[in-house]
From TrEMBL:
The keyword Transferase does not apply. PANTHER family: 2-AMINO-3-CARBOXYLMUCONATE-6-SEMIALDEHYDE DECARBOXYLASE, CATALYTIC_ HYDROLASE. Residues 9-291 form the Amidohydrolase-related domain. GO terms for molecular function: carboxy-lyase activity; hydrolase activity. This is Amidohydrolase-related domain-containing protein. Coiled coil: none annotated. Keywords: Lyase. It comes from the Bacteria. The keyword Lyase applies.
Amino acid sequence: MNFDDLVAIDIHTHAEEPCNHHRDDGYNEFQAGMARYFRNPAGAEGMLPTVPQTAEYFRERKIGAVIFPVDAERETGFRRYSNEEVAQLCAENDDILIPFASIDPHKGKAGVREVRRLVKDFGVRGFKFHPTMQGFWPNDYKLVYKMYEAIEEEGAIALFHTGQTGVGSGMRGGMGMRLKYSNPVHVDDVAVDFPDLKIILAHPSFPWTEEGLMVAQHKPNVYIDMSGWSPKYFPEIFIKYANSILKKKMLFGSDWPAITPDRWLKDFEEIGIKDEVRPLILKENAMRLLGAA
Ligand SMILES: [Zn+2]
């Protein structure tokens, strides 16, 4: 990937299994719920983009994209896009896509081996965790610390979903999703115990926005991605920190396909981010994090 050719790097996009055919595992209903939450008709109509279509969209706009599946089959029962398949598609589109992977921490030793294999054999650069969808505390050392150790040793990045989620929103019993796991303060323990692990807190962490800002301010290895929300709904304090003490820690992310970069970037223009800070958030911070600057 030649970063000079890119105008921005989107650190948070999803490889969703296309659901434009009927499935009997509840996946279509789940995507319809997500579409309502994000007011994004694409999901409900079964128009989710494939990975090659995603590459095409980003290539047209000269925006590099970190892309990942989410391994939550244990909690949700959904088949997932395999990490290998996504990484392979990224390799075929390596001018624009950067592969992350996702492994349910409950996979234990097998998961730890998978981390190392995905980095070494498939060029995976990071791992997405979703504490609510995967049902775990990020600081559960017995469960997941061996996996962080492997990620740290392989020089990869750990990205954590934080705050509220569209997953299970409005569905009976929230589809079993427990929101408590996604408070970013639990990731603070991870940042202490793995000081050389690069960590991203995804989203404005609502309603724990201030906790997320606190962790990123205090721990040099913790970044925040601004995905999953249109910037026009960002809490004021989030913008204030992005403009000042966290200007080198904040990262552009959309949460594609739930939110498109077109919509995100348009709204980002309107929130009073300083001219000198904008390129940091849109591209330079991500380049540094990815070891490209
Ligand atoms: Zn996401």
